[in-house]
């Protein structure tokens, strides 16, 4: 019974993510950016195609998982925290927050996070020593160890 509940939760999450992917590609990307006069039928077709492509990509990585999945997840959460979090918090609590400031903050946060990750994770830009760490965040923290 517990396995059925876990499977149901995973499938509902996957279905929600597929719905978001297809709607984002068809409505937000294609209709609002590339082809504003697309018909509803064409938008639905684009949504179905993008959902199919997303399922194929997810299936491929499910069958052939890359060895760097944990690092990619850590990078994704780092990017989200560095780019979206300050804009969301300032948008809620700072009355003078505007669109330009949010975009500038998101770009700055993303670039700083990518610089920090590449410097200490991949030893680019001269690597770094413990004296160079920001807020005590070391390379060991950026590496994800397997569960024991």
Give a concise summary:
The protein has 148 residues and is mainly alpha-helical.
Walkthrough of the structure:
By secondary structure, this protein is an all-alpha fold. It folds into two domains: 2-63; 69-142, no CATH class. The protein is extended and about 55 Å long. Helix 1 (2-34) crosses helix 2 and helix 3 runs antiparallel to helix 4. It is 74% helix and 0% strand. It has helices spanning 2-34, 40-63, 69-93, 99-121, 139-142. The model has no long low-confidence stretch (mean pLDDT 80). It contains five helices and no strands.
Structural class: mainly alpha
- Approximately what portion of the residues adopt beta-strand conformation? under 5%
Q: Strand count, sense and closure of the main sheet?
A: none
User: Helical residue percent?
Assistant: over 70%
Described by the principal axes of the CA atoms, the overall outline is extended
Rounded mean pLDDT is 80
Query: Count of helical segments?
Result: 5
- The termini sit apart by 26 Å
Order of helices and strands: HHHHH
**From the alpha-carbon coordinates, what is the Rg to the nearest angstrom?**
20 Å
**Total tally of structural domains:** 2
Number of strands: 0
